[in-house]
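User: tokens in, sequence out, please.
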């Protein structure tokens, strides 16, 4: 049987942050990073947009400002980001304040999907040079906490301390691990929304502020703005019964790529359920399946012009008249999202979009496309035993899938914080 001092499950930013901190603090550690994908995955692969201002990305129930600021310094030291400039911010902020909307000034950087891949390759090379073992294409199947071993699809591996950080897509996997370990957790907060796509000229704020963070009432916010060579994409998910559904998302390439003149961003509403609902995840999955039913197995898309007229979009909607750009995710099914999204959620989002159109006139041009659904399943709330995200003896969680973060930089910070607890375990 193979043996390691520390095993890290997941090679996203949480796993990478933990690995670098472990090996830098104790260079003689025998460390394994386990990744089910054939290449290193995680948030760094998709657009690679990073925010460096609290509370963006930091769940307030797990982080205080002074804590996040301290860890962000370590993240910045390692990643050495080039912070993007902003212009005319006060103009937009004044407009927003008059409407009871907040525009948060965030320190951020953007590498693009292609730039993110270059960064991942660089980081992986550095870890290999530091003699960290990286096993790609190997999946953790189960864990035996009494024997301190994990079983993968290829072997058994012993550990002294383990970090499980599979990221947002590992939401269901981490729940299965918690169930097997008897770890208490809550699963009652989800984000439901749409992905908006339009011409940059209809949302010109992105020329001044790459990823503007608008916060509206009713817990609605803008999220993950992409511009330049920007594209809407779909992400595949499976239910516990192996039913397939998709969630839309967005990304953009670096400024070195040709500009397609489009921008996209999410409008998300955070929904917090109370008893007797057992699983927010299952609620979101049902919404995803319902959208697939309406879309013939595809996500839905609808032009704003059709939505305002109360009619569904059709193939003929996507023509060269007023609707003068093609959808970047053309495989979606034209339809009526109001038949698929719960009315209360849609009302809150549409109200926020009208406010946004007052702050940044043009975003609700008839050609603007609304894609549905965009679902974020990263709100597991495990019962942690200490400040290092320990859930059981020698077992730690971190990252978006574990609810300790909501984004790249916070995930990296949570990986560092978890690794500090791991160091205590391996030096006992």
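Assistant: Sequence out:
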């Amino acid at each position: 049987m193979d043996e390691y001092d520390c095993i890290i499950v997941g090679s996203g930013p949480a796993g990478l942050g933990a690995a670098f901190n472990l090996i830098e603090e104790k260079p003689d550690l025998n460390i394994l990073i386990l990744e089910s994908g054939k290449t290193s995955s995680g948030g760094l692969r998709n657009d690679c947009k990073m925010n460096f201002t609290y509370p963006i990305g930091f769940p307030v129930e797990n982080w205080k400002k002074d804590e996040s600021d301290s860890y962000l310094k370590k993240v910045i030291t390692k990643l050495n980001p080039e912070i993007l400039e902003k212009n005319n911010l006060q103009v937009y902020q004044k407009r927003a304040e008059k409407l009871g909307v907040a525009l948060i000034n965030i320190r951020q950087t953007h590498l693009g999907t292609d730039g993110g891949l270059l960064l991942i390759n660089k980081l992986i090379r550095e870890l290999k040079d530091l003699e960290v073992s990286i096993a790609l294409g190997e999946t953790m199947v189960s864990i035996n906490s009494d024997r301190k071993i994990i079983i993968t699809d290829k072997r058994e591996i012993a550990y002294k301390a383990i970090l499980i950080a599979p990221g947002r897509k590992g939401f269901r996997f981490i729940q299965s691990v918690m169930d097997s370990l008897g770890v208490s957790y809550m699963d009652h907060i989800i984000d439901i929304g749409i992905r908006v796509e339009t011409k940059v000229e209809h949302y010109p704020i992105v020329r001044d502020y790459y990823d503007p963070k608008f916060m509206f009432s009713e817990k609605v916010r803008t999220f993950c703005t992409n511009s330049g060579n920007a594209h809407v994409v779909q992400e595949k998910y499976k239910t516990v019964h192996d039913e397939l559904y998709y969630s839309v998302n967005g990304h953009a390439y670096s400024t070195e790529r040709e500009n397609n003149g489009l921008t996209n961003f999410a409008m998300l509403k955070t929904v917090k359920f109370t008893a007797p609902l057992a699983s927010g995840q299952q609620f979101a999955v049902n919404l995803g399946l319902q959208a697939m039913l309406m879309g013939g197995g595809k996500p839905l898309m609808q032009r704003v012009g059709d939505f305002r007229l109360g009619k569904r979009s059709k193939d003929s909607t996507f023509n060269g008249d007023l609707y003068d750009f093609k959808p970047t995710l053309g495989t979606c099914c034209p339809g009526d999202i109001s038949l698929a999204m719960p009315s209360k959620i849609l009302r809150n989002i549409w109200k926020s979009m009208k406010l946004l159109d007052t702050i940044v006139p043009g975003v609700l041009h008839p050609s603007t496309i609304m894609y549905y659904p965009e679902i974020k399943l990263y709100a597991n709330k495990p019962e942690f035993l200490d400040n290092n995200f320990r859930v059981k003896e020698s077992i730690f969680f971190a990252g978006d899938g574990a609810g300790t973060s909501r984004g790249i930089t916070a995930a990296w910070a949570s990986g560092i914080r978890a690794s500090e607890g791991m160091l205590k375990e391996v030096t006992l």
